[in-house]
Design brief:
Elements: E1 6-11, H1 15-30, E2 34-35, E3 44-49, H2 54-74, E4 77-81, H3 82-88, H4 90-95, E5 101-103, H5 111-121, E6 125-127, E7 149-153, E8 155-156, H6 167-171, E9 175-176, H7 179-191, E10 196-200, H8 216-224, E11 231-235, H9 244-252, E12 259-261, H10 269-274, H11 281-294, E13 299-306, H12 313-326, E14 330-335, H13 353-376, E15 382-390, E16 397-401, E17 406-410, E18 419-427, E19 432-436
Parallel strand pairs: 1-2, 1-3, 3-4, 4-5, 5-6, 7-10, 10-11, 12-13, 13-14, 17-19
Antiparallel strand pairs: 8-9, 15-16, 15-18, 16-17, 18-19
This protein binds S-adenosyl-L-homocysteine (SAH), iron/sulfur cluster (SF4) and FE3-S4 cluster.
Length: 438
């Protein structure tokens, strides 16, 4: 029934959502559906959504609003997946009555059946039940976004309940994927020619194999033994669960990139406590120092929130101070917005919007200077780069180095999909420029 149907998948949100969309595309391809070239030339539009900030939801609502016309004109089936689906459920159908299905992350395996039932019974459905066990959904290589670097989900959900965060309510409690299935997927990817693996989970440090009890360092060891792979990354790590053993694993197995995303959120102990993050700035710094001593070339990135309830200029200065001290290669910074069901939503959102904007601008412009200086230091050096394809502009190639910095470079031969040496010849705040060394 899905055979020959053209589907268009639109993904918002984090890497986990990108990987989920790859799973969903695989399910549909298996049923004989085909990818559509554009939304207006499709029979089925699937939107995978993100609820993490108010802005993400606003952006989605305006997108869904624009789909009404297409629904009326062409009768396209419209399916809403993801974190907004799980969080808003019936409310989403009330607001957008032309949606056909609302399916949360724990129910993706039921999507093909629900689509068939929809065609037969014309019945709208909301599938948002929780799942306690791990459900395996295989991915076809052609459903992956990249044929060089692959996402592999190792756990889902979060038990941390940071006071600002909606994720525990959209993804549920932590569930871990058996190490045996992870290794099977990774080996298949290596055989298919993938060079980089990014292990995904909201909270990868708490990974525990349900069959053997092995933790993340053991998983990293086993994956680094897989032949053919060049680079292994994992995200997201929680600072409170980042252990010495994990730092040792990063230092010991050469394929594990010397790169880590470690969300700090705030540099102020008072705010960290209100955020329920479970660490102090001193503890965070201790872990950074440990990492830098074991891996002197490590590239660090982080997430930061400005304008959390009661945040003062002094609290914000403490965030700036840590950013200065740590010298992250990249930061992802956000204005706080209250989210449904979270503990912080009960606090008064008392930092005025213009103050949040001002702090965000100051933080980002300081980081821009830091990045510019860090990038400049690489000019003249030759680094390994995984070429992800051609760059959007002109006839350059683009890729990333081990530190996950973007490199745009020229090459006389087609190096797409290859691991190569690139001599860095120039730099800017957001990327490096270079020439392939043959
Ligand atoms: N599991 C990951 C990712 C969580 S969501 C982690 O623990 O880091 C990604 C980022 O969005 C968070 O790190 C945080 O910086 C930001 N974020 C989450 N909730 C937010 C909110 N209510 N307002 C603003 N930013 C938020
Ligand atoms: Fe959200 Fe905190 Fe869990 Fe990350 S660790 S997903 S920020 S609750
Ligand atoms: Fe967004 Fe859900 Fe990811 S809320 S950040 S898509 S886990």
């Amino acid at each position: 029934m899905l055979k020959g149907k053209r589907f268009y998948l639109h993904t918002f949100g984090c890497q986990m959502n990108v990987n989920d969309s790859e799973h969903v595309a695989s399910l549909l391809l298996k049923e004989g559906a085909v990818p559509a070239v554009s939304p207006d030339k499709s029979d089925l539009i699937i939107i995978n959504t993100c609820a993490v900030r108010e802005k993400s939801v606003k952006k989605l609502f305006s997108y869904l609003g624009r789909l009404k016309q297409q629904k009326e004109r062409q009768g396209t089936l419209i399916v809403c997946l993801g974190c907004v689906a799980q969080l808003y459920r019936e409310k989403l159908l009330k607001k957008f009555p032309y949606l056909d299905l609302v399916v949360g992350p724990p129910q993706y395996q039921s999507l093909p059946a629900a689509l068939k039932a929809l065609e037969l019974e014309q019945q709208k459905k909301i599938l948002t039940g929780w799942e306690r066990r791990w459900v395996e959904l295989p991915i076809k290589d052609e459903a992956r976004e990249s044929q060089v670097s692959a996402y592999v989900t190792i756990m889902e959900g979060c038990n941390n309940f940071c006071s600002y965060c909606v994720v525990p309510f959209t993804r549920g409690r932590e569930r871990y994927r058996p190490m045996s299935s992870i290794l099977t997927e990774v080996k298949d990817l290596a055989t298919a020619g993938y060079l980089e693996i990014q292990l995904l989970g909201q909270n990868v440090n708490s990974y525990q194999d349900p069959e053997t009890g092995h933790r993340l360092p053991e998983l990293l060891k086993r994956i680094s033994e897989v032949e053919g792979l060049e680079w292994i990354r994992f995200l997201t790590s929680h600072p409170k669960d980042f252990t010495l053993e994990l730092a040792e694993a990063m230092a010991t197995y050469p394929k594990i990139c010397h790169q880590l995303h470690l969300p700090l959120q705030s540099g102020s102990n008072r705010i960290l406590k209100k955020m329920n993050r479970g660490y102090t700035r001193e503890e965070y710094l201790d872990k950074i120092n440990l990492l830098k001593s074991r891996l002197p070339d490590i590239s660090l990135s982080t997430d930061l929130i400005v304008g959390f309830p009661t945040e003062t200029e002094d609290d914000f200065q403490q965030t700036l101070e840590l950013v200065e001290k740590i010298q992250f290669t990249n930061i992802f910074s956000f204005r706080y917005s209250p989210r449904p069901l979270t503990a912080a939503a009960k606090m008064k959102d008392d930092v005025p919007e213009e103050v949040k904007i001002d702090r965000l601008i100051r933080l980002q412009s300081r980081q821009k200077e830091i990045q510019t200086a860090l990038h400049r230091k690489l000019v003249g050096k030759t680094v390994r780069v995984l070429c992800l394809g051609r760059s959007k502009r002109g006839n350059l190639f683009c890729g990333r180095n081990e530190g996950y910095q973007v490199v745009n470079f020229s090459s006389n031969t087609d190096v797409a999909g290859k691991m190569i040496q690139v001599k860095i010849t120039g730099s800017g705040p957001y990327s490096l420029q270079g020439e392939a060394v043959i």
